[in-house]
Amino acid sequence: MKPDIESMIADADALRSKLDTRQRATTQAPWYAITNADGDKANVRIYDEIGMWGVDAETFARDIESITASEIEVAINSPGGSVFQGLAIYNALRTHPARIITRVDGLAASAASFIAQAGDDRIMVESSQMMIHDAMAATFGNADDFREVADFLDRQSANIAELYASRSGMPVERYVEMMAAETWMTAAEAVEEGLADSVLVPARQTSNISPQAALDLAAASAAAQVDAALVESKQNGERAAYLRTIELRKRNLK
User: Are 68 and 34 contacting, i.e. CB atoms less than 8 angstroms apart?
Assistant: First the structure.
């Protein structure tokens, strides 16, 4: 008997949704959180897999709809998960009226990589990574069943490659090749491949000046310290000479 893929997905999603709803009704998971939803800038954290037992699209879409902030920053550290859950989260962000910033803090792999594409501004924090690959699935059945699933996966992979291309402006064939090879990218490489706009280097780790400029500033600072020492020495010498003059005058008056 051929596997009914859509029914299997629907049943799994329904079960997961019920379990997640019960869990989230009692507490907000630390790996998924939204803060300052009604302020100027809302912050969303996705630090888990997409779908299954992680961040599900139904909960995410409902929470995002309630945000009234004009800007939403989504921090991502996820190994990925369900293609359809990821696409739903991506579209929930893309259709929200707020300006969206996506920021990859650690890893945006698989489904999380196309959630990262939802940002009007797509940021990779220094040392973070991104991974893209072809759609995958587990199935059972005879050869015809496997061929049907293979065709299904090819359609999903093509759809994801088109998503990458639409956000980057690069040829879709480029991403078809990268996905087939399962490509891992550093922050800088993700920008080079059009899957991010910039690399964020935390301010506390660096300055905005070049190494040569830093050396010049250090030399100027050292020179300034020498000049200050000379001035102080001259002033001290003049003061000492003045005191000696006063002492001599006192002696002469006696």
Answer: no
pLDDT for the residue 96: 96
Domain span holding position 140: 5-205
Tell me the per-residue pLDDT of 218-230, one tens digit each, with 9 for 90 and over.
665 555 555 555 5
What pTM did the predictor assign?
0.69
Nearest to 21 by CA among 51, 46, 58: 58
- Catalytic residue (one of 78, 82, 110, 168): 110
On whether both 140 and 164 belong to a single domain, the answer is: yes
Active site residue 96: no
Q: Please tell me which residue in 113, 133, 157, 168 is annotated as part of the active site.
A: 133
Cβ neighbours of residue 71 closer than 8 Å, sequence gap 6 or more: 40, 41, 42, 98, 99, 100, 101
User: Any idea what the CATH number is for the domain that residue 151 is in?
Assistant: 3.90.226.10
Q: Which residues of 214-232 are buried (b: 16+ CB within 10 A; e: fewer)?
A: eeeeeeeeeeeeeeeeeee
Q: Specify the pLDDT at position 174.
A: 97
Determine the residue type at 118: A
Q: Does residue 133 carry a catalytic annotation?
A: yes
Q: Does 161 share its domain with 58? A: yes
Q: Are residues 47 and 155 in the same domain?
A: yes
Q: What is the pLDDT of residues 109-152, one digit of tens each?
A: 999 999 999 999 999 999 999 999 999 998 989 999 999 999 99
Strand 99-109 versus strand 41-46 pairing type: unpaired
pLDDT of 76-96, one tens digit each? 999 999 999 999 999 999 999
